Model the fold of this input.
Amino acid sequence: MKHDFFRRVAWRGYVLALVCWGVAFAVRFGLADSFPPGFPYLTFFPAVVLVTYFAGLRPAILTATLSGLTAWWFWIGPQGFDLSGDTLVAVTFYIFVVAIDIFFIVGMDGASRRLAREVARNAALAESRDILLREVQHRVSNNIQVVSALLSLEARATDDLSARKVLLDACARTALVARIQRSLAEAERQATAFEDLARLIVDDAIAAAAREDVKVSIISGDVALSAEEATPVVLIMLECVNNALEHAFPDRAGTLTIELCDDGSVRTLVITDDGVGVREAVDSVHQSLGLKIISALAKQLGGQWSLQSTNPGTCARLCWPSEGLAHEA
Done:
């Protein structure tokens, strides 16, 4: 039985009031000889409570009135509406008790209904906000794709090989940002599994470089990236992978290992290869555009990035606090 069944149509509530009063009266009358003196209202109080809960204020008043008059006539003092002092005290006690019952039940019911309406309103607002956010993310992704396409057109139009390479690199980076934005939108702002996203990006990078001879191992367990972490972390990973594909294995096959771990307070991304190692001085390496981008993204995460030779190979390490992004000074 639904809570509102007797409230949606007024006559249903009054029918319930009459039925509950009739049942309470029949039970009280049938057990009159078994009840000790001083309990004229015993079966009527539950009737008033039930009608108040299911039907509301007015049917409850009807039930309380009929119950009080019935008990007064049959079981308080001599039969009839006795007006002695003891009888009036008993009637006053009954009125006080049922008034308190009705007041609290109606009040709590009204409060629960207001709460339910507020919850429904907040749920509708949250749904509208989520729809709007997904639409914004979709438009941002589309705009970034447009920028990537424009950069690609500019690269094809230029005859300067160095300028073309710079434009194509910028095109690839903006396309990656667009892809990450789409992934976040599809995940509805929830944390994104790093391994799934990294595998997709790395496979594309290997295919673009035509380096099927390079094997990649990705280890992350169940670590997931928040919306704030995903873009900078994946961009840093891709820059390191591209550097390894370009410099670590110039004329031979090799292996890349990408590992992301979280100890609760710090997250660490480690990318290692078994290639030729770092041949240039660290200061010189940091002059490249890709590694300048990595340094800037690491600062955005509030973390630290390092690159060192491991003999054989190279190890790139990114550490950042897992609590969230640190604000730049």
Notes: The mean pLDDT is 83. The radius of gyration is 38 Å. The CA atoms of residues 5 and 206 lie 65 Å apart.
